[in-house]
Amino acid sequence: MGVLYLLSKGATVRKDGGRLVIEKENRLVGRMPIRSLTSIVVGPAANISTPAVFACLENNIPIFFLNKKWQLLGQLANEHASVAVIRQQFACLEDYDMSMQLAKSVVSEKIRNQYRLLKSYTRSSQNSALTKALKMLKAERSKVDTADSADSLRGIEGNCAQNYFAGFGALLDNRTWHFKGRTRPATDPANALLNFGYAFLEREVRIAVIAQGLDTRIGFLHSNNDRKDSLVFDLMELFRQPVIDRFVLNLLRLQVYKPQDFAKDDEDICLLSDEARNAWYQKYEDYMEKTYQEYDGLSPRQLIQKRVEAFRQELLYPTKHDKKKQ
């Protein structure tokens, strides 16, 4: 099972029996059995035929479309959230105690992930910025349980992000990467990789949410409106550090990428070069499919799927202990 990235200019995919035929500028690139795919990612300069789209939908293979900045523009997928599930999601959203309980759980887990990632580097990187970040994260996490609103939680989350990325930057050679903190859009290579990685993470979480039959729009931490699939953004917070930040740190610290692999566009946004993006796809897929001891023998992709499944159980079948807490 795998992901087909259709991102090169002039790349096309068409259906031929039970296979997809990938071509570029009328040259055969390869063939893939349709049922071997888990998803397809299509860039703005590529093409996928209508019969290929129908075949993917018939086989429950989601298709994701990216814009020129490689951000998710839209999707085609057989979303099948039942009325009962949607009602329960709305019930949790409208129940203040339940909504806060879920939000606190996510924020607390995110801070714990930030702390663990930075802590894992203390043996090889001893500096005051890292020590300070760890101390501040520990202090902020202690405030989560007493937060009385989603705004308060978002404030704690923001303070933690600022301290975490100060520690993150201390793990990089700033003579090479010039990382001054988190920026969106990206102003430096490290932020370009983080932004690129989070776009991939959004797709991973979206697939997992859809697979669990949940409605992507109904969340509990981020604002719920017609412009955001709030549940996807809520659950992404659980995986930024253990999946994407970990991967990006390894790429930079092992010097897989060089400063010349990045360039700024007309809007002064730092982006990966075509060659750097092409290198990312294979390295990312290898990483997402490899099992790790720290994930209890799961791959990062399996970790996401299992955690989202656990969230579904927590959401739809709260325990008696949880109900008492409400």
UniProtKB/TrEMBL annotation:
Please list the residues that bind Mn(2+): 157, 222, 237
Ordered alphabetically, the record's keywords are: Antiviral defense, DNA-binding, Endonuclease, Hydrolase, Magnesium, Manganese, Metal-binding, Nuclease
One Pfam family, short name = Cas_Cas1
Against Gene3D superfamilies, the record matches this protein to: CRISPR-associated endonuclease Cas1, C-terminal domain (1.20.120.920), CRISPR-associated endonuclease Cas1, N-terminal domain (3.100.10.20)
What highest taxon heads this organism's lineage? Bacteria
Q: One GO biological process from the UniProt record?
A: defense response to virus
EC assignment: the record states 3.1.-.-
Top enzyme class: hydrolase
Q: Which family does it belong to?
A: Belongs to the CRISPR-associated endonuclease Cas1 family.
PANTHER family (alphabetical):
CRISPR-ASSOCIATED ENDONUCLEASE CAS1 1 (PTHR34353:SF2)
Q: Subunit comment for this entry?
A: Homodimer, forms a heterotetramer with a Cas2 homodimer.
Name of the protein: CRISPR-associated endonuclease Cas1
Species of origin reads Selenomonas ruminantium
What are the leading ranks of the lineage? Bacteria, Bacillati, Bacillota, Negativicutes, Selenomonadales
What gene is this protein translated from? Answer: cas1
